[in-house]
Design brief:
Blueprint: E1 2-6, H1 11-23, E2 27-31, H2 40-49, E3 54-56, H3 63-74, E4 79-82, H4 89-94, H5 96-117, E5 121-127, H6 151-169, E6 174-180, E7 182-184, H7 203-211, E8 219-221, E9 233-234, E10 236-238, H8 239-255, E11 262-267, E12 273-274, H9 275-286, E13 293-295, H10 310-316, H11 324-343
Parallel strand pairs: 1-2, 1-4, 2-3, 4-5, 5-6, 6-11, 7-10, 8-13
Antiparallel strand pairs: 9-12
Helix pairs in contact: 1-2, 1-8, 3-5, 5-6, 7-9, 7-11, 9-11
Bound molecules: UDP-4-deoxy-4-formamido-beta-L-arabinopyranose (WQD).
The site of UDP-4-deoxy-4-formamido-beta-L-arabinopyranose has 18 residues, from strand 7, helix 7 and strand 8.
Amino acid sequence: MKILVTGGAGYIGSHTIIDILEQTNHEVVSIDNFSNSEPATFDRIAEITGKRVKNYDIDLTKYATLKREFFNQVGKIDGIIHFAALKAVGESVEKPVKYYQNNLNGLINLLKCVEKYNIKHFIFSSSCTVYGNAKEQPVTEDTPTQIPESPYGYTKLVGEKILSDFAKTKHGFKGLSLRYFNPVGAHISGVNGELPKGRPNNLVPVVTQFASGWIDRLVVHGNDYNTPDGTAIRDYIHVSDIAHAHVLAVEYLDKHDTEKNYDVFNLGSGTGVSVLEVIKAFEAESGERLNYTIGPRRAGDVEKIFANNRKAVDALGWIPKYTINDAIRSAWKWQQHLNTLKRDGKVLHG
Ligand code: WQD
């Protein structure tokens, strides 16, 4: 099959492309306008897989360009894995229109192309943020979604609705929303990983950059939660496990002529881990001591969320194989690779 990966230069997109190229015979093309990534990612994919993926630098919010420059050029596309979206929770609160315009128009334009070019499969990158502060933990796919705390989270909830409503209208079309918990870690080779633009928001890149002296503070956002050590609990899932789930989801759509034209899967490890436990895991894996400080809770944070992943395990045959320590170790290996590049004067967009 020929698969379009949007956001192919991004964190989860690049790891998913690597897994597709290493585990299947599918052809992959990418659309990425490098708004939060860099062209060098495709060099890293080539270094790991020996294959050069063609990327089209197109803004998905430009429908006419998308048709003319991509779909009219590349021939038949069998499926789309749609990662490309803005994803900084805090920034989405400051710039809501930018987030709604980019994330929703990009999705809508792609679905208009699904219609026009008769594309059968569509996998949407969603997020556990749609569960909000769910009381019932771990959350299942049937746990009621709640009004997300941020415009970013809203673009995921509304995006799922747009896809499920669209799927009802298209005979033979099948769509999936994959709800990621907290993707962490880097490719086992240490030569591909997360390189957020500017100061990272997410815990693990903050930890590895703080340990490398790239940022000057590591603040634990609140230690007065109703959790064993007072810090918030999340379900940290290795990015390579997330990537493999997408390979299995592509096979699932291809093989299962299920009566369902739309479905949802939680992609989490099933284990809740606190902020302090992440910090302690990093200290154990790296041998570094982290001189963190305790600060106030961060607006929009939930106290605890972790996944019941049985549905994905049973239906997709997905077995997450990495632990939080594996993820931390791989993230630190990647950070040390970045430290070497930086020391050698290589320009990093991070
Ligand atoms: C995890 C925990 C922080 C930084 C968000 C989105 C989700 C997905 C992942 C994109 C929280 C604490 C963090 C720091 C800290 N988005 N923390 N100090 O907010 O759970 O999820 O990112 O893919 O959809 O909602 O992830 O890594 O920012 O925070 O104490 O410097 O770490 O308060 O408890 P989050 P996170």
